[in-house]
Amino acid sequence: MCGRYSLFTPREELEERFDATFETSPEPRYNCAPGQRLPVVTNDDPGAFRSLKWGLVPPWADDRKVGSNLINARAETVREKPSFREAFERRRCLVPADGFYEWVQTEGGKQPYRVAFEDDRPFAMAGLWERWKPPQTQTGLGDFAGGGAADAEAETLETFTVVTAEPNELVSDLHGRMSVILAPDEEETWLHGDGDDAAALLDTYPDDEMRAYPVSTRVNSPANDDSSVVEPVER
DNA sequence: CCAGACGTTGTT
DNA sequence: GTCTGG
DNA sequence: CCAGACGTTGTT
DNA sequence: GTCTGG
């Protein structure tokens, strides 16, 4: 999975780590959720953190709501699926994070866990991105050269999805899928390599330096975007 | 040929 | 139950 | 991922 | 746009 993550690493550290710059200082994020605009590094502009909406909308979709389903793409099939094939070949991105959340069903309800590196260092999840324009609405005969083009421009939507694979041993205790984490020396190839080389990176990241711990159910609501949701709680 | 889907997760 | 919004 | 809505008519 | 199902 990966349906929620954190990104509270300070701006300077992120800029140095990814060799990219923010246009404006990002707020520390403890509860990044689908549907939100979040910083990613795209292959066509790797020197910048760009704000894209989480939930990939394929270019041929007739409704932007399609994106709410496509927050993840399976590594095993991403090169074949019509929704992802083109993006995989031409539009890959890095999705910076410093932890992600998993929910485990228990007797008393769902218990959220945070998974992160032991030192909370940031990492890149493998992502794909797209650019979508609303279908041309039927403009009347008198509406050429009007506001239509400007509207479409304004409504152009850039979106991304996170690639998932089998979980490592640590995460497999919590969940059956895990987002693909790229090693730093793999990021260049993910962004700019050919399809075969990029596909070879879609494996499971080892859990040696990772940890998982229960957190408050406050994380359930994306509105609770504060540091309390990364604090360990007793089970 | 046209119509309709195109996806993931988890759960049953 | 299912869909939308965050 | 979870939370929260899920509808219409008419009136202000 | 492209693929699958009828």
UniProtKB/TrEMBL annotation:
The keyword DNA damage applies. Coiled coil: none annotated. GO terms for biological process: protein-DNA covalent cross-linking repair; proteolysis. Keywords: Covalent protein-DNA linkage, DNA damage, DNA-binding, Hydrolase, Lyase, Protease. Residues 212-235 are annotated as: Disordered. The keyword DNA damage applies. Residues 217-227 have a biased composition (Polar residues). GO terms for molecular function: lyase activity; peptidase activity; single-stranded DNA binding. It comes from the Archaea. Belongs to the SOS response-associated peptidase family. PANTHER family: ABASIC SITE PROCESSING PROTEIN HMCES, DC12-RELATED. This is Putative SOS response-associated peptidase YedK. The lineage of its organism: Archaea, Methanobacteriati, Methanobacteriota, Stenosarchaea group, Halobacteria.
